Amino acid sequence: MEKNHDPQDRMTVIDTGTASGRLALIVLAVAAFAKGKKRPEDVAAFAGDAVKNAEEYIFLDRLAYLAAGGRLSKSGAFFGDMLRMKPVVTPLADGAKKAGLCRSREEQEVFALKTLEKSLAPDEGGFILLEYSDNHDQVEAFSHAVRNRYPRSRVVVHPLSLTSGAHMGPGAWAVAFYRNFPE
Length: 183
Description:
This protein is an alpha+beta fold. It has one domain (17-178): Hypothetical Protein Tm841, Chain: A,domain 3, CATH 3.30.1180.
């Protein structure tokens, strides 16, 4: 079947096990790497390795939206929202993994900066994607702190995907980043 669609065998399919901002950065990195006269097998190898250089952390504001989508019990969401618990999750191939817990927007921003510091050096040329739901102004304001700390990195503020936004609800935002982004 695939020979009918790709008779010259020029296409390689790779399951990265990623989605959302992390997948976007992997695709952009592979496209940047592939510019010029690269051998297809080099591009495919780079794409396979690119997964290791990208991370994403999603900051939730309210748990009720996860409960509405069946990803959390309604009672768990109710008590979590009542106690102002704002989980930080990182999407992985086998599901979302809890990476932390914050109680305020300020704590979320501190968590994001500390997470970036662990993986990305200030003088490194990375790519940082800040994603927002209904909170563009807050994420844009936060982007200034990120740009100041990472002057050699490309920083882009972009909306969350519609699917992600629908499952996570208003107030959700994310930071995705790629180390050593190809020039």
